Fold:
Amino acid sequence: MTTLDETDVSVERTPDGRRIVVSRAVDASRDTVWDVLTDTELWPDWGPSITSVEAATRYIESGTTGRVRTVGGLWLPFEVTACEPYRWTWDVARIPATGHRVDEWPGGSRVVFEIPLLAGGYAPVCARACRKIASLAAESTTTEP
Structure:
């Protein structure tokens, strides 16, 4: 297991096969982190490669479609291919992309990205996303009534 800052990187078997897994402990509940991951309005806040999202619904579910605008300004279509409690996957431009999940973790939860092996260069981007998600979830926890 390698560490980027406080983010761990490893290779694991996932429901979609062997993937590079980038993960980080978060000081927030599993449900709070899940809300951050599934709220399309927040994707540009934590996704370093996404600047805008247009989606059929604000919170994703299996079959949700839409498009994301990348940092380069290119709009790409997406479809959520699976979404069950605490794990979702998607295709971007009809190509299987990262998986997203939230695991239980002592004192909070753990946000996890599952990256196809051929996209290993995307690990630092996912590590940055993990940090942003942790920050957004912590902010959400402190502002809840």
Summary: The CA atoms of residues 61 and 98 lie 16 Å apart. The mean pLDDT is 93. Strands lie at 2-4, 7-14, 17-26, 50-55, 65-70, 75-84, 87-92, 95-105, 108-116. The longest helix spans residues 123-143.
